């Protein structure tokens, strides 16, 4: 008969063995994929204190408790058999993304952001049909965005910003029917915008090489789009009137493109949520679009450094929600409405570097100084400029032409 202390020790050992057996059931294909993922990273870029350093395959990846091995970077399913999340720490890992990651078929989150991964995005990622969030942001991935990305039907967030990806955006993006957030900023994508996923709430593709005009086909059905960031591209043409009537649109930034015009239709004042618009540093011509002042919650507007001319509409100064107004760097003429200067600090912004007359030098809004008269004469023509100055002297609030067109 066993002694009591030996019996207790044996029972404890058997219990631990039983638990380790139950909890050491990570699918072999998942283990193979994890091994390949780590092997594709240069060992010299894996610091001692990092998550990848703790990936020691002498232990089962999903075994519990994790005291020394696999202490971070991955999450397993409740039954400890499948890997459902990989979120690597930002430690400067350098390497490629192995195609074998496709074996992690229960993966819901894949985040390798803010490291130095390079090479192409493997098309085999399309096998991860359960994936809801994919982030490869701030790495050095290059090449095309695989058209097979459209197979990720569960994807809700896709962030590939700050890489070196190039080529046209695949039409298969439209197939990502559950996608609500798409960020492809700071890459080298070119060509026109394709038809966009229908449930997008946030779209950011700034600082690329997109070209062509804004097409209704691309935005058709986007009833939930709230934030649009397309600045610093090569977009051309006229921004059409339907654009600002997308029903959920709140923030628009299309600065630093080559747009030549903008149409503003009167809004549905009960439904419009448009808060901020930045169309600065384009080539927009014509008069300031007065209809934009009718958007009920508009708080910030920038049309700086375009080719706009004529007076600043009185309606702009009467809009109580407007807190930021940047109109500098155009060819605006006449006298700015007095309402802008009635309440000190009421509106922030700039009317400087225009052709305005009698803009109060004491106001920050009138900085920097106006363009030389010779530049304004060249824009308006000598006689028209002289007549404009005379009109200001007689009727300070006179307005040129039809400011409803832009």
From TrEMBL:
Its main location: membrane. Residues 28-63 form the Leucine-rich repeat-containing N-terminal plant-type domain. Keywords: Leucine-rich repeat, Membrane, Repeat, Signal, Transmembrane, Transmembrane helix. Gene3D superfamilies: Ribonuclease Inhibitor (3.80.10.10). Residues 1-24 form the signal peptide. It is found in: Membrane. It comes from the Eukaryota. One of its GO terms (cellular component) is membrane. SUPFAM superfamilies: L domain-like. The keyword Membrane applies. PANTHER family: LEUCINE-RICH REPEAT (LRR) FAMILY PROTEIN, LRR RECEPTOR-LIKE SERINE_THREONINE-PROTEIN KINASE GSO1. This is Leucine-rich repeat-containing N-terminal plant-type domain-containing protein. It comes from Carnegiea gigantea.
């Amino acid at each position: 008969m066993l002694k009591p202390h030996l019996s207790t020790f044996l029972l404890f050992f058997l219990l631990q063995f039983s638990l380790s057996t139950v909890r050491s059931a990570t699918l072999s294909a998942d283990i193979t994929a994890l091994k390949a993922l780590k092997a594709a990273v240069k060992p010299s870029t894996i610091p001692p204190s990092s998550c990848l350093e703790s990936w020691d395959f002498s232990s089962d990846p999903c075994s519990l408790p994790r005291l020394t091995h696999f202490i971070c970077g991955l999450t397993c399913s409740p039954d400890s058999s499948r890997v459902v999340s990989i979120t690597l720490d930002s430690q400067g890992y350098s390497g490629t993304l192995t195609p074998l990651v496709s074996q992690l078929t229960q993966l819901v989150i894949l985040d390798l952001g803010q490291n130095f991964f390079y090479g192409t995005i493997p098309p085999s990622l399309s096998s991860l049909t359960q994936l809801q969030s994919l982030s490869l942001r701030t790495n050095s991935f290059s090449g095309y965005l695989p058209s097979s990305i459209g197979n990720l039907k569960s994807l809700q967030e896709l962030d590939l910003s700050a890489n070196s990806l190039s080529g046209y955006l695949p039409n298969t993006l439209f197939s990502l029917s559950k996608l609500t957030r798409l960020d492809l900023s700071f890459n080298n994508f070119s060509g026109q915008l394709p038809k966009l996923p229908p449930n997008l709430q946030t779209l950011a593709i700034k600082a690329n090489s997109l070209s062509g005009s804004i097409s209704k086909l691309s935005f058709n059905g986007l009833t939930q789009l709230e934030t649009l960031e397309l600045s610093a591209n090569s977009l051309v043409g006229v921004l059409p009137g339907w654009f600002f009537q997308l029903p959920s649109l709140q923030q628009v930034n299309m600065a630093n493109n080559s747009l030549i015009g903008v149409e503003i239709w009167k809004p549905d004042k009960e439904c419009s949520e448009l808060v901020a618009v930045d169309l600065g540093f384009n080539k927009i011509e014509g008069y300031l679009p007065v209809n934009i002042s009718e958007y009920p919650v508009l708080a910030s507007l920038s049309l700086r450094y375009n080719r706009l001319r004529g007076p600043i509409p009185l309606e702009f100064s009467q809009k109580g929600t407007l807190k930021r107004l940047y109109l500098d760097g155009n060819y605006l003429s006449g006298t700015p409405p007095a309402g802008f200067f009635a309440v000190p600090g009421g509106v922030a912004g700039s009317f400087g570097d225009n052709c305005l007359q009698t803009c109060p030098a004491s106001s920050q809004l009138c900085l920097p100084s106006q363009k030389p008269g010779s530049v304004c004469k060249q824009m308006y023509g000598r006689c028209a400029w002289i007549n404009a100055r005379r009109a200001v002297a007689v009727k300070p609030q006179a307005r040129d032409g039809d400011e409803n067109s832009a």
